[in-house]
Amino acid sequence: MGLLPTATQFVGFDSAWSGNPKILGAISSISFSGQEFFDFREPEPASFTAASDYINSIRRLDMPTLVALDQPTIVPNSTGMRPVEKVVASLISWMGGGVQPANLNRVFFGRNAPIWEFLRRLAAAEDPEAARTANQGVHLIEVFPALAFASLESRFFGRLMGPRYNPARKTFQFGSWIAVIDATRAEATRLACTPLVEWLDKLRMKPSPRKADQDCLDAAVCLIVAIRWRLSPRAMSVAVGDLRSGYMIAPASVPVMGRLRQAAIARGVPIDALSY
To answer: What DSSP line would sit under 222-245, residue for residue?
Structure first.
């Protein structure tokens, strides 16, 4: 934990990007008193509207709320990838995965995309560094589970070694599914987040996971990234990009930091220097 852990409410939201009512993401939350975690709400399916209602209904006046969202929130570019995505993609593609490009010509980020209404209804501050010490209000950070896994489990940090844990794809590997759960559980254990550990133990017992289970697992990963960002020493996380062209917050191991820095320098993208 960091030197001065403070009371905080955490939310992890793995959105489905499209807003299609038949394709849901997942959301989860937990509170921290300054000494222990309490009031855990297990991951559950959620649309954008349901997620904003969920967050606004549980937010508290006596502590800040930190929301970790698995979707781009700052998208000024009309085409291609944001600079942060180019940096992250250099790592994720090496691991055998991919990064969805965010730009205003994609339906997910066009004028009527549901993400903008979600952000309007949430009215959260988006300043990740300030969110580490804020004592009130709702705060938002953009996260990316695939990037988190590179640091949470060293076996994933290798060429074509990234996890294949999406049950909806032909590439799904049950061993990867278990490894992702175990990596998330190990971090939850390090953070002394016992309610989340217990939920992950139950998820691990499922013999045939479905896509909805993966969405819930990703919501739990978002939750873990938020807790680590707020409660652990700053050096244990990384901020790639900036608040003008887009950014991502993620756990940071030494080897992952080295590869990200190299890619960021080559592309002129800030690392741990968030600014407008």
So the answer is: HHHHHHHHHHS-GGGEEEEEETTT
Looking at the chain, how many residues does it have?
276
The phi and psi torsions of 59 (rounded to 5 degrees) equal: -60, 145
| Measured distance CA(26)–CA(20) in Å, rounded | 14
Question: Is the alpha carbon torsion for 246, 241, 153, 233 positive or negative?
Answer: negative
Per-residue pLDDT tens digits for 202-220: 999 999 999 999 999 999 9
C-alpha span between 221 and 13 (Å, rounded): 9
CB contact at 8 A, 146 and 166:
no
Q: CB of 145 within 8 A of CB of 71?
A: no
Query: Would residue 40 be called left, alpha or beta, if left means φ above 0 and alpha means ψ between -120 and 50 degrees?
Result: beta
| Distance (Å, whole) CA 208 – CA 202 | 13
How do residues 93-133 score in pLDDT, each as one tens digit? Answer: 999 999 999 999 999 999 899 999 999 999 999 999 999 99
Tell me the helix, strand and coil percentages in the chain, rounded to 5. Answer: 40, 20, 40
Helices (H) and strands (E) in the chain, counts: 9, 7
Considering the entire predicted model, what is its pTM? 0.95
Using CB atoms within 10 Å of the CB of residue 177, give its burial: 0 to 12 exposed, 13 to 18 middle, 19+ buried: buried
pLDDT per residue over 237-260, tens digit each?
999 999 999 999 999 999 999 999
DSSP class of 177: H
